[in-house]
Design brief:
Layout (H helix, E strand, L loop, with lengths): L1 H7 L10 E2 L1 H15 L12 H16 L3 E2 L4 H30 L6 H26 L4 H6 L10 E2 L10 H4 L3 H4 L5 H13 L7 E2 L2 H29 L1
Antiparallel strand pairs: 1-2, 3-4
Organism: Streptomyces adustus
Keywords: Membrane, Transmembrane, Transmembrane helix
Protein name: DUF1345 domain-containing protein
């Protein structure tokens, strides 16, 4: 019952505490590590150039908001979006090279490419999850620091956004009742379901950019899955 009472007294967002910095840092570092582990043939640059640049962008972001995301400047917004774009673009490039490699029948090291496909798929989930997190309703800082009437239009509609008129134990956690806002985990969940179901599940895209991003992610995940399955069958035979 304690959690129900706490929900009705409004979500921590109302206290303007800001979202924790650590999950975003961990997700970014995992994406960097996955990229570093790719075979050299899938990389356009020397192995550590892009990861070093991504870490260089991450350092000032941590310095501006070391524990919680409460401060947003023009520079912070530019750096955070640039970092996500760099992760996504480098991974999609690796996917394009991977597709070219997998369709060649004379590829000798097919097993390493299959492992690389898994790395690209996982990075795809992280990159697009971070993109949704950075874009929706003005980003993680705006979602907790600005009042709802000052937030930009939402890119996604979550279940909590429409749960105000359902049974009490559900409604107590709804956006309108508890001032709930999505965090990185919620956007990573969107990314996971979009990469496995190749379509939205319980969270619907609202804006044109959200639909375009989800379309690109779905196509990338579908191509990876189909090519990996086809290549795996040929390797096993």
């Amino acid at each position: 019952m304690k959690s129900r009472v706490e929900a009705r007294t409004r979500h921590p967002r109302h206290e303007r505490r800001g979202e924790a910095r650590l999950p975003g840092v961990v997700a970014t570092l995992i994406a960097v590590i996955l990229y570093v582990g790719l075979p050299q043939q899938l990389l356009l640059t020397p192995r550590y150039v892009l990861p070093a640049l991504e870490l260089l962008l991450l350092v000032p972001l941590i310095a501006i908001n070391p524990k919680r995301l409460t401060r947003q400047t023009t520079a912070f917004r530019f750096l955070s979006l640039t970092l996500v774009l760099l992760i996504a673009a480098s991974n999609l490039t690796a996917l394009g090279i991977l597709i070219r490699e997998l369709v060649h029948a004379d590829v000798k090291d097919s097993r390493s490419l299959l492992v690389a496909a898994l790395q690209v798929w996982l990075t795809n989930i992280i990159a697009f999850g971070l993109a949704y997190w950075e874009l929706d309703r003005g980003g993680p800082v705006a979602r907790t620091q600005a009042s709802r009437e000052d937030l930009p239009l939402a890119d996604f509609r979550f279940s909590q956004d429409e749960n105000d008129d359902v049974v009490e134990e559900v409604a107590d956690g709804a956006s309108g009742t508890s001032d709930w806002v999505p965090t990185l985990v919620d956007y990573l969940y969107i990314s996971v379901t979009n990469s496995t179901a190749f379509s939205p599940t319980d969270t619907m895209p609202l804006s044109t950019r959200a639909k375009l991003l989800m379309s690109v992610q779905s196509v990338a995940a579908l191509l990876t899955s189909l090519l990996v399955i086809a290549r795996a069958v040929s390797v096993l035979h």
